Amino acid sequence: MSLVTCCHMKLLRGPWGRCMGSDCGPGGSQSRAVWCAHVDGWTTLHTNCDQAQRPSNQQNCFRVCDWHKDLYDWQLGAWNVCVPVSARTFGGLRPKVCAGGEEGTQTREVGCILKSDGAPAEDIICEYFEPKPRLEQACLIPCPQDCVVSQYSPWTSCSKTCGTGLQNRVRSVLVPPLFEGAACPNLTEFQTCRTATCKGPEGMYSMKIGSWSPCFVPESRPVRQAKRRKGKGSGTRERPVFKDPETRELIQKKRTRNRLNRQESPFWDIQVGYQTRQVTCTHRNGSTIGLSHCIPRDLPLTVQSCLLSRDCELSEWSNWGTCAKACKDPKSLRGQRSRSRQVVQFPVGEGQDCPSLEETEACEPEGDRVPPCAIYTWRTTEWSDCRVDLLLSQQDRRRGNMTGLCGGGLQTREVYCVQANAELLTYLNNLKEKEEGQAQSQQMPSVPPLLSVSFEITASPPVDSKLCEGRVPNTSQLCITPCPIECEVSPWGAWGPCTFENCDDQAGKKGYKIRTRQIANKPTDGPGACPHLLEAVPCDDPSCHDWQLVSLEPCIPDNEKECGPGLQTPQVQCVNSNGELVESDQCGGIPAPEPIPCEVPCSRDCVLSDWTPWSTCSQTCSSKTIEGKQMRTRSILAYNAGEVTAMVVAWITVMEGLSRVPKFPELFGGSLCPNSSALQDMRNCNEHACTVYHWQTGVWGPCTEDPSALALNTTTVTNLKVVADPADQVSCSMGMQTRKVICVRVNVGQVPPKKCPEGPRPGTMRPCRLACKKDCILTPLSDWTPCPPACDAAGNIVKRKQYRYRLIIQLPANGGQDCPEVLKEDKDCPAPKVCPGFRWKSHKWRRCQLVPWFIRQDSPGAQETCGPGLQTRAVSCRQLDGTQADIGECLKFANSMPLISQPCQLPCQDDCQLTNWSKFSSCTADCVGVRTRRRMLIGRSKKKDKCKNTQMYPLSETQYCPCDKYNALPVGNWSDCILPEDGRVESILGMRVQGDIKECGQGYRYQAMVCYDQENRLVETSRCNSHGYLEEACIIPCPSDCKLSEWSNWSRCSKSCGSGVKVRSKWLREKPYNGGRPCPKLDHINQAQVYEVVPCASDCTQYVWLAEPWSVWKVSNVDLKENCGEGVQTRKVRCMLNTIDGPADPVEDYLCDPEEMPLGARESRLPCPEDCVLSDWSSWSTCRLPCTRNNNRIRTAYPLRAPGVGRDCPETTDKDPCHLNANCFNYFYNITEWSTCQLSSNAVCGPGIKTRMLDCVRGDGKSVDLRFCEELRLERKWLLNTSCVVECPVNCQMSEWSAWSVCSQMCGLEGRMWRRRIVVQASQGDGRPCPTQMEHWKPCPVRPCYRWEYSPWSECRVEDVVCGDGLRFRNLTCYVSDGSSQGEGSLVDEELCSGLELAVNGDTEITLKEACTLPCPGECYLMEWSDWSSCVSMCVKGAGVDFGSVQVRSRAVMAQEPENLQLCPDQDWESRRCTDGKCYEYKWMSSTWTGSSRLTWCQRSDGLNVTGGCPPINPPVDNSSCDPPCLMPKSFCTEAGVCMCDEGYTEVLSTDGLLERCTPIPILEIPTAGDKRGDVKTSRAINPTLPTTIQPGRSGRTWYLQPFGPDGKLKIWVYGVAAGAFVLLIFIVSMIYLACSYCAIRRSLPATESNSNGAVVWMGQNAHELTYTCPDCQELAQNSG
After folding, report:
1. 772 and 731 Cβ atoms separated by less than 8 Å
2. Are 336 and 295 contacting, i.e. CB atoms less than 8 angstroms apart?
3. Whole-angstrom distance, CA of residue 557 vs CA of residue 1046
4. Taking the complete model, does pTM exceed 0.85, yes or no?
5. Which of 383, 379, 473, 381 is nearest to 417 (CA)?
């Protein structure tokens, strides 16, 4: 908001509003509010303000739209120089000491521009899309870096051998001055020297040679003649009679011009010219004088031939080639396109070399019709069948028999890569070709192409897996093979009655007795998989209905008597053969049961109990030797009156021959009791023969086609393409299965079918569904793999093969078409006639060309036809077979181009001429003898004496014959143990691990072999007849899984009634090792045992007590007359196994419930005659719930013999009060815990069942039969079975080993190859864990490392003169080494490096000569450049700030004459950027004191002593100014001239203030809260903390007990010490005050008992003497005395 003031009124204006308009761009408008206001703030009318000053309320503006974002953008300027913050602050000063750098700010310009032309625009346009970038940022100004130089070199020798000379020592620059740091000091130091007095005059003059001039082309003859005429005038010139040398030369040049200039390639323009140089004579003081002072001596050559320099000339760039990427896909990498240019003119002489002839750039294909890129994706084959054996451990006994395995397993499949959009690309390509054809015929397609596309879905051929990206699908997965549920049947039921097979058809008398059993569960394969459920026994007199006895009515005596014999009428009902009640008329043809005789005892008769129920039949069938029997018993309850003893009865029976004792009832007073045999009754049972028949069924046969059904199973494979049949909707048809059914007699075998009842005969046919046929499905064949290079490195043709393959997607099944045997094909790659390759061909050298005679004729000693010259030759490009090739191919693929010129020498008459060297003679034996080569003198040289000097011109050379002896040695470490790479083989243990990839067994480890020649140079290992490795067998131990014993048998259920537990266990036999499967969780008590506990249930009626009949009464008071009274009865009670037919076999008593055990003995009163006799008591009735004392349980009896006259029967009902948990119980259900997950016996893992049991528990906690709870109809809401899963022990699955990597070093001893693998699937459960070794290495074959190296530069050569401009040379030689950092290698023949690029340390610019200057005597000159220093980082150590790295080299001045020092040039240095520089620190170092002085120097953190770099403040003092000197140990002299002690020591001064000794400072250590030491110790202050205050001459000392905390505040203990000191001070002052006050008091008292020594005695209240002696008191005593 702005304002315009007018008197007391002012115009206010608001901000501009939003730019509005109908069009985008500058046509918009925006407005703002303008109003008039009083200076006090209230608004008034517009007329009160000056209207002339009213601001505009509307203006034009630029309306920004979204599409402007592509037209405008922010332009960011460069950051300006970093300005210190202190410089921008008013009155701020820069710190004197720079610590790590100074904070500053830097600014830049930012503006909105139009992208197309960079025109500036309003910022509001760009701000519409993104905020304006920042204009200012913080920066760091580095501290000034002073120049750092090295130490001086040793002094040079004296520049003169006599007289006064100079010695020099130099140093080099290590770090240049940066950031306004101090400049470099002098790099050279001089000192005069005088070795000896000169005996004669010193050499004052030196011949100095200059540098060669540029190369010139000689002037042509007409030009020279014109110059000559101009110099001599216009007169006519006489024609010479003879041809001068120049003319002869011109004629010769005409003859040879074409041959000399004829080149086989147009790329060279070679012209031979000349160059000159000057020779001068210099004085020792550096001045130039006449050449005559340096003569006589031979003058050097001042003119020579040269090649006229021509720079490389190139053609224009060609057009950019097509983009290598021919498809659209923004996600993929960009393509490359290239362009090239040709060499028009190769460089000649010193011309500039050719730059790169080819360049590339990233590109994307352009155009609307660019097809999409190929998309690759992973595909998988069909999962294999579920295999359980892959999960078995090594010790699993089921490994030998795989049949029947079920449960959890593994499925595998193959993964391959395919092109996902191959059909689309093929269609688009065909469409493009079609459109191109239509365009040629000028016809347009009538149908839109994309509307008429149709695809044939086929299996895609596999491609290289490297093309697919993303996560690879799993190659294995867990699966489940359902475990078959075996059929379980109940025990056999009892035999039924003899009945007709069909009661509706009762023809014949043949019948069957049948017994059955039921299926207890639902088997997987249906009831047909169960054993027979019915057995039949043939019998006679069958009947479909019969009378069933219900009960017997009471015995009614005959003749309506009260006692005696009578009859019992049976109550019956009619039932059928199944025991079902039917109408009575159905049994009309069967006589009903007649009344049964009985007897009611009279009062004096013997009384017998009722018969017990019939026992179970002893046999299930009968034969000639075996009969089934049933028995029942009864007992005597009371004897008859007058009963005598058994002895009397026996005597009467014998004597009288009586067969029946009851013939004499009068003798005994009543009917007699029967003998013991009459108390038992026995009858036959199961009288049917032991011939049992049943129907036996066979296994269902395969499902075969039913001719009546339509078979549709037509999946086919046509030309390896999956074709779907239209009828595939009904893929499978119905078929039939048959089985064999026979009649079998038990224990005999098959019998005729008529022996078995026809009714229950099983069926022999059933319908089934035919399994669908599955044909083999394959992928199409992949494309042929690319052919490998058919030529080896030597250019020889090598036969190669290429392959294509296909994969099985679906295996055949159910009679489908089989897969072909061949899945991989190969063929030979086409071999080229000639291996591609290019080489340079050099032609013969041309004639040696001299400098023209007219130029060199004035040179001393020059001859016309001889001397040094230059010769050239042509170079061409050839293929390996010798045919002509484009020269550009050799530039790309051949080695460096041969030289096209070389110096030459045309011998003069006085020169010696020799032939070229011959080849060396052959050696007769290696390492023995010599070989020679020769040359000869030719022409007149044979007669010249100087040429016959064999020392100067040797005519033969001899060298020792090469020695081809080689020595092989092992080198390096042994590799990892590597298994043979022949793939999937079994290990030495004969077992396969998961994935069938060999993981253990015998392998080999390798050690590299190295071969040396006789000179200990590394050569190829083939020279030593070695393949490069030393092999040694090794063993990779196979993993051994945890081995447990087999499961023990299940223990017996812990309870005989209700639910309990049963246990089985495994014992640890062997622990796992070498990465085997771990053991399952062992018992925490016994670590060697695994338990499995499951609940079990025992039928409470499984074991029952069986009581035999009561024995005869044993009466205590035997009375032959009465035989009654108190007595005892006993019986046997046994625990029996209960079956469906009743108790069968006796078992141990503990299996039966002891609470329910019947009594084995009873005491009671035997009734006397005339007494009432009751039956045995019935069982107690059940107490009614709830259990209270008001409720009773009862039992009853009934009278068997009526009492005599006057006697009564006892109570027939007995009551017992109900007591909770005594005879009255509550019942409830109890549920057990879940069992462990139980699997099938043939399963390893997978789905299982957990069970738990339901118990009926009595109120006292006892488990009882479930019927007690069922009778109460208690709610049952628990699930007793549930599904569960046992985790499968999946072994870790590893990928196959990758191919061996490229060698880490192409040559040398330390090269290694690696191969790796990854975890495809981690282990699960108790599976074998993954191995730790994920990679293998082995050494590479040792190859010699060849490299080009420069020899050292030669000395500067200036021919035969003393000084001047010359050349220095070096050679390029071939070295061999072992690749290690130790040793530089050995020199070998250059042929071994011929295959290498001509480069030294990566530098391809080879320089073998360079200009140099040899200083003249007395001249002051610059030395050669020093080596580049190490790379130094300009950093702030510890702050993480780096200002870049730099390295430097320098040239120092070298002087020879003291008089010429003022003529010396300035020293020089230059720097360059580098990378990976090291960050150094600098600190002052000092030596130990020697007397009163010591040495100090600056040292860099890498240990290098330097000058510069250390902080300029407070360097240690070199020499001492202390007097006397500081000679005490641990002392030093300060700048102030005072002796002080080192850190950790304190000064002990003498009486005169001088340092006497240095004593260690006691340091108080205060234990911290966590310190266990409670004492306070004293130790020396060795290495105290860094000083906080620096004082001149001595560094500050930091006390160990710091009074200030980290926050700068005083610590609490300081206050305590201060308070203690204050209290102590008060105490001392108080004591002094009291003492002095006492003196004053004593002084005022009469001195009656004053001591002569001034002692004052104060008598306190307790009569203790306090004596204090003070000087004042003594003086007072003396004065008073």
Report:
1. yes
2. no
3. 72
4. no
5. 379
In 3D, which of 1680, 1646, 1651, 1681 has the Cα closest to residue 1668?
A: 1651
Q: Residue for token digits 């002509």?
A: 884
Angle between helices 1612-1644 and 1671-1680 (to 10 degrees): 10
C-alpha 673/C-alpha 645 separation (Å) is 12
Query: Which residue reads 């039913």 in tokens?
Result: 706
Order the strands of the 1496-1500 sheet from edge to edge. Answer: 1482-1486, 1496-1500, 1505-1506
Which contiguous run of DSSP H or E holds residue 930?
Answer: strand 930-934
Taking the C-alpha atoms of residue 695 and residue 742, their distance in angstroms, rounded to an integer, is 6
Q: Scanning the structure block, which residue is given the tokens 């480069």?
A: 1399
For residue 527, the one-letter residue type is P
Ramachandran class of 21: left when φ > 0, alpha when ψ lies in -120 to 50, beta otherwise: left
Amino acid symbol at 86: S
Question: By C-alpha distance, which of 517, 465, 478 is closest to 495?
Answer: 517
Contact 1, 35 (CB under 8 A): no
Beta strands 1363-1369 and 205-209, pairing class: parallel
CA distances from 409 to 61, 811, 995, 1041, 1290 (A): 77, 19, 13, 18, 9
Taking only the tens place, the pLDDT of each residue in 846-868 is 888 888 888 888 777 788 888 88
1449 has pLDDT over 90 = yes
Q: Which tokens belong to 509?
A: 């008398």
Contact 150, 90 (CB under 8 A): no
**Which single residue is written with the structure tokens 């058919």?**
790
Q: What's residue 77's pLDDT?
A: 92
Per-residue H/E/C for 966-1018: CEEEEECCCCCCECCCCCCCCCCCCCCCCCCCCCCEEEEEEEEEEEECCCCCE
Based on DSSP, count helices (H) and strands (E) in the chain, helices before strands: 12, 109
With beta carbons less than 8 A apart as the criterion, state whether 1433 and 136 touch.
no
Q: Are 677 and 648 in contact (CB under 8 A)?
A: no
Give the whole-angstrom CA distance, residue 30 versus residue 61. Answer: 6
Alpha carbons 75 and 1253: distance in angstroms, whole number: 83
DSSP E strands: which ranges in 1311-1431? Answer: 1312-1316, 1319-1321, 1335-1339, 1345-1350, 1363-1369, 1372-1377, 1386-1388, 1409-1414, 1421-1422
Q: How far apart are CA 823 and CA 813, in angstroms?
A: 19
Contact predicate 744/695, CB 8 Å: yes
- Report d(CA 877, CA 893) in Å as an integer: 11
Spatial distance between the Cα atoms of 1125 and 1117, rounded to a whole number of angstroms = 7
> Between the CA of residue 1466 and those of 42, 1027, 1080, 1275, 1429, what are the distances in Å?
80, 62, 86, 115, 20
- Residues 6 or more apart whose CB falls under 8 angstroms from that of 968 comprise 1009, 1010, 1011, 1021, 1024, 1026
Structure tokens at 1527: 């000679």
The overall longest dimension of the chain from CA atoms, in Å, is: 213
State the sign of the Cα–Cα–Cα–Cα dihedral 1394, 1400, 1404, 1410.
negative
Q: What is d(CA 1038, CA 1579) in angstroms, rounded to the nearest whole number?
A: 60
Of 465, 483, 356, 346, the closest CA to residue 415 belongs to 465
Classify residue 553 by its DSSP letter.
P
How far apart CA 703 and CA 688 sit, in angstroms, is 42
pLDDT at residue 1665 tops 50: no
pLDDT at 369 over 70: yes
Beta carbons within 10 angstroms of residue 985's beta carbon: 12
Contact partners, residue 908, CB within 8 Å, separation at least 6: 863, 865, 866, 867
Rg for the chain (alpha carbons), in Å? 64
Lowest-confidence range among 303-312, 1432-1441, 1593-1602? Answer: 1593-1602
d(CA 1190, CA 679): 42
Which residue carries 């019986």 as its tokens?
A: 1131
How many CB atoms neighbour CB 1593 within 10 A?
16
Beta strand 875-879 with 930-934 is unpaired
The answer to whether the beta carbons of residues 852 and 830 sit under 8 Å apart is no
